[in-house]
Amino acid sequence: MRHLPYFCRGRVVRGFGRGSKQLGIPTANFPEHVVDNLPADVSTGIYYGWASVGSGDVHKMVVSIGWNPYYKNTKKSMETHIMHTFKEDFYGEILNVAIVGYLRPEKNFDSLEALIAAIQGDIEEAKKRLDSPEHLKLKEDNFFQVAKAIISYISTEV
């Protein structure tokens, strides 16, 4: 993808309810308009990068962009797994994502167990790649600082 890193933000919406319940891997979902506005050359597949919720800390993440063939989705989605344990759900909060690399194309799986194993492998690979100096510097990108400033300003105005 020529546009990497790619930055996007939007409010977290309810997804299919599978991430935490069926997979044990919670995801934050972007609304349709964020997915629809991805650059045309963004292939479906699994990517990695950095994410923050609201004005919170920046964490490693993996994101699936596509149709989720195992579940036979009819709508393209963008589901972000943030490598951090949150105390509570954050539906309605602003999700800030910096996609910095590509792991693999999306594919179908023969079983739920195979899908879970692949996702866990993606998470481990992303953790390693994000430790490289070129990717670590993006954790400090102005994109995340601006998000903190905007949300802090809005909070003081309310």
Give an account of the 3D structure.
- The protein is α+β, with helices and mostly antiparallel strands.
- The chain has a single domain (6-151), classed as Riboflavin kinase-like (Elongation Factor Tu (Ef-tu), domain 3, Beta Barrel), CATH 2.40.30.
- The protein contains five helices and six strands, in the order E-H-E-H-E-E-E-E-H-H-H.
- The chain has helices at 19-23, 32-36, 112-130, 133-139, 142-157, and strands at residues 6-11, 28-29, 45-53, 59-66, 77-82, 94-104.
- A six-stranded antiparallel sheet has the order 1-6-3-4-5-2.
- It is globular and about 45 Å long.
Number of helical segments with 4 or more residues: 5
The total domain count is: 1
Which structural class do you get from the secondary structure elements?
A: alpha+beta
| Spatial shape | globular
The tally of strands reads 6
- Give the oligomeric state of the chains in this entry, treating copies of one chain as homo and distinct chains as hetero: single chain
Give the termini distance in whole angstroms.
Answer: 40 Å
CATH superfamily: Riboflavin kinase-like
CATH architecture tag? Beta Barrel
**Estimated share of beta-strand residues:** 25-35%
- Nearest-integer average pLDDT: 89
Q: Which fold name is given in CATH as the topology?
A: Elongation Factor Tu (Ef-tu), domain 3
Give a quick account of the main beta sheet: strands, pairing sense, barrel closure.
6 strands, antiparallel
Radius of gyration: 15 Å
